[in-house]
Amino acid sequence: MRYSVGIAMLFNGFPLIFFFRDTLGIGPASSTFTAVFFAFALLLMVPTNLFLRFYNPNPVLFNLGVGFLLLSVYYFLFFNSTGMGITDIGNYAYIFAFLLLLLSIPSDVKDALVPVLFIFSLFSNLTLVYSLMTDPSWTLGMRAAVSFSNEGAQAGGNPHITARNGIICLLTAMVLIPQYKSIFAKLFLYFSILFSLAVIVLSLAKSSYLGVGLMLGLYVFYNFKVTKIFSAIGSFFSFKNIMLVGLVLVGISYFLSQYGGVMDNLLNYWDMFEGRIMDVIFTSFGVKLSDTADIDASAMGRVSGFGTFLDTLYSWDVFLGRGYKSGFLDVPILEALVNHGILGFLFFNGFNFFLFIYSIQEIKRNTTPLSTFLAYFFISLIVLLISGGRPYDIAYWFPYAVMIRFLGIDYFYKLSRQPASGRLAAASS
């Protein structure tokens, strides 16, 4: 449990950091609080066998991921066009320390990590509601995020952190549902899923909307076959399932009767999302599918970044790149080439390509709850890889480190195919 708490604090710690630091005013309103928070998480992860025993990660992901990190550290030290930043040094120290500790932690942590991630993300959803209710500048219709309290920070906070937390809560709840037989536990998890969907909607993060769509599409593709549909319909008409669905419908009906404007607000959010998508299409392709479409500033930045990518591709810079953080494209898969040349492009995009392959495999075979969660979570990140962030961001690499350790592990798959007696024997040996 201690290991799981430490991993969860690094995997999805930003919502809690923003709540304690910016809403409750605990600690300095700067990156110092974040550094202390992450340091405490690493301390919780320290095992008794540190440096004495290491557990096998996914070798392909490990080699490609660590290869890109080492390459970027080399560029940071010797091919740096932005100066030696203390923040960058700290980020790399945390990433490598996190990966080292993950390799030192026993594989049994996979059984406790998903419930801990669910509890953390659900609590973060609740803290978001509290933060919005106590924020006089926020009104329904604005993007939901914890407002930063430090000077010069982004106004209104970061809605992508809000949406990501909602996705984590949604996925962990869905993965946990088959683990419980209690109707009350299942009911609680279903309501948590609905709550998480509401948080994702309120965030107005286009990438998360599209990510949820991708996850849903893959889930339907690999799970809804004709034979399974008929068997699912037959199993649905059990007393327990009918009672469960009935309670959910009653709860939704009561909520809508008490808060009649909720549906109107949801439709309003959909209209805003549709308008933003039209703006992006108009900005990117010059095709005006809506009379109200306008230039989208963030999309325009990516369009300009794509021009920088093409300039690099057709110059000598394609071989070595332009230097560490020399260009900010807001498209990580392209920035890897602009800043680090062909080698950086191959390492970073090869890493994400194999992550996609292992995620698809895991979605098909459902080895462990943690592996299934990580697979779907990476699918939700694919949209961000072409629409936001940098290839060095710890918001990517903390989840990446967990995927390197627990995704596509042959040992887990072989163990999951053994009968219960075989698993007990393997565990004892």
Automatic annotation (TrEMBL):
The keyword Membrane applies. Keywords: Membrane, Transmembrane, Transmembrane helix. The chain crosses the membrane at residues 6-24, 36-54, 60-77, 89-106, 112-133, 183-202, 236-256, 337-358, 370-388, 394-413. This is O-antigen ligase family protein.
